[in-house]
Write a structure and sequence with these properties.
mainly alpha, 78% helix, globular, membrane, transmembrane helix
């Protein structure tokens, strides 16, 4: 299995195909997105009442309680991760012309592959924390100290510190580059462990190598995301303004009734696009064949 280096234009190709995939296979993909997002909300629904209770009582969370909430959130999130892998497999089935159903997102659990995906999630958390720590250590501890002050102020209902710490600019730049790299790293490694059934360490290695070999198209993909998001935000703002005018004429309740499904549709579309992009990124870099209409690779 070759890990390909794609041309710069591949980034825009991943984005365009990621946007169109949900509209080409709306029933399994949007249906699956609803199921995955409902499952992903479970950790928040469990931990949010604890945080709201602390907020309304006016007493900050004790460190022990905060750690328990964080641990519970991480555990529940890891249990949801196999559904993400199942959703990626649904996209693959739909794109390959095979039978695909929204309920197929549970296949990693049904086929006994969930533990491997959860193990992958644990290792990815370690990778995320390690790379973040390396960036912070490289740029000094000023940003980390400032961030802890922000968290402490929020927990104690105090105003956050004014001003930015020294090294904030270079830290932000490095984290942005790291985020672009991680976008490819996660997409490729998740595709390997979900669709190719690679082992955890093999998938992680493939993700790192694939992202490093495709930094330029990943940069173009990030640029495409920014431009697309600006266009969507402008369009959504215009629609929201029109609905606000209608609400003034008819009633605020009508604006809420019309705006709520618009928010839901936008969120589901974003979710589908995100995984559609991840799938086509993985397919071009590590798939058995290169889909037509994409940029040709530099090297096999």
């Amino acid at each position: 299995m070759a890990i390909r280096s794609m041309g710069p234009g591949a980034g825009f190709g991943w984005l365009s195909r990621g946007i169109s995939v949900g509209f080409r296979h709306p029933k399994p993909l949007f249906g699956g997105a609803v199921l995955v997002l409902l499952a992903a909300m479970v950790p928040t629904l469990i931990t949010l009442p604890m945080q709201l209770h602390a907020l309304h009582s006016g007493t900050p969370l004790q460190p022990t309680a905060f750690l328990w909430i964080m641990a519970l959130s991480v555990l529940l999130s890891l249990l949801v991760l196999p559904l993400y892998a199942g959703y990626l497999k649904v996209i693959d089935s739909a794109e390959q012309g095979l039978a695909a159903r929204a309920s197929d997102i549970i296949k990693p659990y049904a086929e006994g592959k969930a533990l491997r995906v959860i193990g992958y999630g644990v290792l990815m958390m370690v990778v995320y924390l390690a790379t973040f720590a390396i960036v912070i250590a490289t740029t000094g501890g000023g940003v980390a100290h400032w961030y802890m002050q922000v968290l402490t102020a929020g927990a104690n209902h105090l105003p956050p510190p004014t001003g930015l710490p020294d090294g904030f600019g270079i830290t932000f730049l490095l984290l942005a580059v790291l985020g672009i790299f991680m976008m490819g790293f996660y997409s490729i490694s998740l595709g390997q462990v979900s669709i190719r059934d690679r082992g955890v360490f093999g998938a992680i290695a493939d993700g790192a190598i694939g992202a490093l070999k495709n930094l330029l198209p990943l940069l173009m993909l990030a640029l495409g995301f920014v431009l697309t998001w600006i266009a969507v935000a402008i369009g959504f703002g215009i629609v929201a303004l029109l609905l606000a005018l209608i609400g003034k004429l008819v009633g605020a309740w009508l604006m809420l009734v019309l705006l709520f499904p618009l928010y839901i549709a936008l969120f589901l579309t974003m979710f589908t696009v995100m995984f559609g992009v991840a799938y086509h990124l993985w397919r071009d870099v590590c798939g058995d064949d290169i889909a037509t209409g994409t940029a040709q690779p530099f090297a096999a």
